[in-house]
Structures are given as C-alpha cells and as structure tokens.
Design a protein that fits this description.
InterPro entries: RNA_pol_sigma70_r4, RNA_pol_sigma_r3/r4-like, WH-like_DNA-bd_sf. With about 200 residues, the chain is mostly helical. It has 9 helices and no strands. It folds into 2 domains: about 90 residues; about 110 residues, Arc Repressor Mutant, subunit A (Orthogonal Bundle), CATH 1.10.10.10.
C-alpha cells in the first residue's frame, strides 16, 4: 500500500507516516468488519489526511504521538462511516471492544483471549463492560490483540509499564474468578437437578 502523496517538502511528516504505516494498516484491518475490508485503503488515507491536519496545526510530534493521532482518527472515521451507512454499533461496546470479542478464542495460546473465549459468546457481548473495566479492556486490546510491546502500549495509553501490567493481571484474575464461579454455579444446578429427579423409594 502506497503512502498518500504530498506536494510539499514536509519530510518529517512523511517519515513519521512511513514509520508507522504498516502498524496502522494492521490496526485498521482488525477493526473492519468483513463487508468493510475493501475500504481499508480509504480509511488509511482518511486517517493520514486527519493526521496531516493535526501536524500542520501543532507541528512535529513523536512516533508515539503520531500513531495515537492516526489510530484515533481511523477509529473515528470507521464509526462515522457506519453511521452514514446506517450500520452503527448496535451493541453496547466500542470498536475496540468488538475487536476484543472477535479475538476471544478458547483455544488461543494467549491466556487472556483464551479466558474470554471460554465465556459464552452472547453472554460475553452483554457482560464485557462488567467483566473488565474500560482501562483493562484498552490494555488487553493493545497488548494481546494489537501485539504492542508493554512499553509502547503503556506510552500510547498514557500509563506506566507497571500500571499496564497491573491492569492486565487484574483483568485476567477477574476473568478467571468469573469462570470459576460460573462453573461452580453450573455444577450446583446439575446436582440439584439430579436430586430433584431421583426416585423416592416406596
């Protein structure tokens, strides 16, 4: 995929875009629904245009700042497109939450995504905001879905690496407790059903 053309000599801006273009493409691709995948380049170029406007208004920025601006712009463009197409998010979760749900897999080698995958899909959609805090979900998406190193993810989220790890561990612990409680409740119901249907001796 080519970078959007430029008619001026803003070498630093083009260099920043080039450094993060592949990462941005992967980020956007993961957030597009199947029927939107053909719009990948359109969303990329829209995000680049938004980034250029910010760059020209505020001046040069670091790579971390640039990717944050681009990702926020791309996410906003996706949401706006869905509203224009009368296809808004009909579920009570954000674009990133949808990505997290789509990557939940009980067979995943990732401990968090595997734990999420062991929860019934419809229940996960309904209960995700109660299972994990918004910040925990942001951390898990950045680290476990987008695959960013801890330092990079922490910088993008504006927290320390220790804070990022604490939130991820807290989220994983909460998911495991939920799964344990759900299993215990299911076992109790099965035992009660057996007790209720047992024949009474004459």
């Amino acid at each position: 995929m080519r970078l959007p053309p430029t008619t001026d000599c803003e070498d630093l801006r083009v260099e920043a875009l080039r450094a993060i273009w592949v990462e941005l493409a992967a980020y956007v691709r993961r957030r597009l629904r199947p029927y939107e995948q053909h719009l990948l380049e359109d969303f990329m170029n829209e995000a680049a245009a938004d980034f250029t406007a910010v760059w020209r208004q505020k001046g040069p920025m670091s790579v971390e700042q640039a990717i944050a601006v681009l990702k926020q712009a791309a996410r906003g463009d996706i949401i706006n497109h869905r509203h224009k197409e009368n296809r808004p998010n009909t579920r009570p979760y954000s674009v990133d939450d949808e990505v997290l749900i789509n990557h939940a897999d009980p067979d995943s080698g990732n401990d968090v995504l595997a734990a999420l995958g062991r929860i019934d899909h419809e229940r996960l959609i309904e209960q995700l905001p109660q299972l994990l805090t918004e910040r925990e979900r942001q951390v898990i998406v950045a680290v476990d879905v987008d695959g960013l190193p801890a330092g990079r993810a922490a910088a993008l989220l504006g927290i320390t690496v220790d804070g990022l790890r604490r939130r991820r561990n807290a989220g994983l612990d909460r998911l495991r407790r939920h799964l344990t409680a759900a299993h215990s409740l299911s076992s109790t119901r099965v035992n009660r059903a057996h007790t209720t249907t047992r024949e009474v001796p004459s």
